[in-house]
Amino acid sequence: MSTDQNTDQNTQPAPRYALSARAAALRSSDVRELLKAAQQAQVISLAGGLPAAELFDTEGLRAATLAALDTNPAAALQYGLTEGQTALREALQAREREQGIALAGRALLVTTGSQQALDIVARLLLDEGDVVVVQRPSYLAALQTFNLAGAQCLGLDEDEEGARVEDLETMAFPRKPKLVYLVTPFANPSGATLSLRRRRWLLEWAARNEVLVLEDDPYGVLRTEGQELPSLAALAQDVPGARAWVGRTSTLSKAVAPGLRLGWLVLPTALAEAAARVKQSMDLHTSSFAQEVAAHYLAGGRLPAHLARVRGAYRERRRALCQALREAFGGALEFSEPKGGMFLWARFTDGTDTRALLPAALAAGMAFVPGDAFYAGAAPRDRLRLSFSTETPERLREGVARLRKAWEASRRG
Fold it and tell me: pTM for the full model?
């Protein structure tokens, strides 16, 4: 193509495509935009919710990849079942049973990451104007998914026991909720964990009102202190009528590697059959190759040692971040130290607007996510999410020092 042709194309007005109303209203993820800025080498990023890349079990995954190709290349390279490859489904079902979850009357569907599981449930259940109850704050990508489905997201505030599910009894709903969606252990962004008392209360409410509860559990494998709580799906077995009203999703992204793009969705059998038809219309099936690699990896027995290494690193990093914040800000920044996960949720007690603070922080060479990104509807402006998973203790301390510098500059006006 000639230079003149290139110039002519560049001066043409941008095409004005007629997007659907839902697509046009969908805002870009703040985290995604921040990750672009955080790619700069000089920026210490406490923004993205990413696993630590240097901790990936590359040797184990290399061996699993070769095994997938050497053992049964047709299974890895051919089209597969919508519900998932047999070997991986059996491995994931075994993991669910180890957590006390009986699969009788339930079915497991392999998904392209747990994000697709949320999309499947949204397409399966939600019509325009339907109500979804979420925690406040909530996982940003879930809010995007439910909004794209045309749903109204109404929030449950959180305290030290997680989402205040008892508020479901007194909330004024424009119509009966179709879905309650909660990240139960170490929620993104708040790090909060739903208490055992509230888990049981929620199950009784769901059975009584016949509302599906979708439990999202990507971070349970990252517990570093304290006793693991039984999942909603496990507890539902002892609550009359609750088994029919609980779904569950999880992922290998935090346990193994997000590049595999593998998650799973457990639903009551009747719903799971319809969910498989929805998935089939989306992508036929999740990558056969990735599934076979994951199945060989899980069969290889390396996961427990890998998770122990990851938990140890995250524990050290979380403690370093919390100590640095206490020393740098004292009472000016309030937060609770979680017992696992990847995130710390904080609030400036002087009312600092974290959205306004972000440009100064980026200029100082550090990144965080303003808290208002995680709310459906009105949002407080004094919160921020900090991730401790991807940076070393030394860089976390330096990141906090840069945040302090930006905060002091913002206070001077």
Answer: 0.93
